[in-house]
């Protein structure tokens, strides 16, 4: 029998220094390289984005010009990768971070960086990150005005210190081909910095699923139990009731969700029900992101993964986060169990 665990029994603690040390590409992209990114020939923008990222890495790593009267060259232009779900933005971002090297770069999601500022303080965060050549920000969020203002100020301080910034965000599947709303929103929100950014567009379908949502198939408790019984004996799996886990997430700061699921090889959740509460939904989004970072298979019974967020939630301000979570959770629900 595999080792059993309950996420609801865990109360992880993460020191600010650990948050800073954890600003590296997630485990799922630990081996990502430019060579392992395979552009879709049907979408030339993918090859163009790859070339841009290669060139950016070379520019960041170029040695400074020496000479008594020569000024230091300006940092390479910052880049905003704009595209829908599953077109390889995170792969390219992680590849860039690996190419530049961990001693010269930091990599984190928008949420992780806002949590870092909360834990370390603004001045200390600026001081720590200003020593780098590159900051990679995955999943830049534009739906929280307070966090967006905070991040815009942080980026301004870092850009003034010579740090190259590369950010990604998502365009909703239904908005593709109707204008680059994500890019326009990004530039508007960081207007003091917009001139320093180059927008790189990446087109293509979500490699996880073409419509951005998993299937409307409900896993029964009996089917979930059968899959659980088939897990290898050397694996560690967690099994929790849906409601219990959601309540537990409310007692833990989201910056600790990664530690919550560390060393878990698969997650089983029983009795899922559709959500219609944004506070609960946003916590679930962060958990799904951390599970996806670690490529942890997930099985959910009670409600189909595609139906976990209510129609209201999928039509309002946080819908980009919810659609991303559905895309990622759908992928994890199809992962082979250990």
Automatic annotation (TrEMBL):
Short name of any one Pfam family annotated for the protein: AFG1_ATPase
Coiled-coil regions listed: none
GO annotation, biological process: cell division
Keywords in alphabetical order: ATP-binding, Cell cycle, Cell division, Nucleotide-binding
TM stretches of this protein: none
Gene Ontology CC terms, in alphabetical order: cytoplasm
Molecular functions per Gene Ontology: ATP binding; ATP hydrolysis activity
NCBIfam families: ZapE (NF040713)
Protein name in UniProt: Cell division protein ZapE
């Amino acid at each position: 029998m595999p080792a059993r665990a309950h996420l609801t029994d865990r109360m992880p603690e993460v020191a600010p220094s650990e948050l800073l040390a954890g600003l590296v590409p997630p485990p799922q992209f630990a081996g990502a390289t430019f060579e392992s990114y395979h552009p879709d020939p049907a979408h030339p923008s993918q090859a163009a984005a790859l070339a841009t990222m290669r060139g950016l890495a070379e520019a960041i790593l170029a040695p400074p010009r020496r000479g008594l009267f020569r000024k230091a060259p300006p940092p390479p232009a910052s880049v905003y990768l704009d595209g829908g779900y599953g077109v390889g933005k995170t792969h390219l971002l992680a590849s860039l971070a690996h190419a530049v090297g961990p001693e010269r770069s930091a990599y984190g999601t928008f949420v992780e960086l806002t949590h870092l500022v909360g834990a370390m303080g603004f001045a200390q965060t600026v001081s720590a990150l200003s020593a780098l050549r590159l900051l990679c920000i995955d999943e830049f969020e534009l739906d929280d005005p307070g966090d967006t203002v905070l991040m815009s100020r942080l980026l301004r301080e870092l850009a003034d210190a010579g740090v190259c910034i590369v950010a990604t965000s998502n365009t909703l599947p239904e908005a593709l081909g109707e204008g680059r709303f994500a890019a326009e929103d990004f530039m508007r929100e960081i207007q003091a910095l917009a001139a320093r950014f180059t927008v790189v567009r990446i087109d293509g379908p979500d490699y996880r699923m073409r419509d951005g949502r998993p299937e409307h198939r409900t896993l029964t408790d009996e089917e979930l139990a059968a899959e659980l019984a088939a897990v290898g004996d050397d694996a560690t799996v967690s099994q929790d009731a849906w409601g219990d886990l959601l309540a537990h997430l409310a007692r833990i700061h989201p910056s600790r969700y990664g530690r919550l699921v560390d060393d878990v090889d698969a997650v089983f959740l029983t009795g899922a029900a559709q959500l219609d509460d944004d506070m609960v939904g946003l916590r679930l989004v962060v958990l799904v992101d951390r599970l996806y970072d670690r490529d942890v298979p997930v099985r959910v019974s009670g409600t189909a993964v595609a139906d976990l967020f209510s129609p209201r939630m999928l039509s309002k301000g946080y819908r980009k986060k919810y659609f991303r979570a559905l895309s990622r959770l759908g992928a994890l629900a199809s992962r082979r169990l250990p």
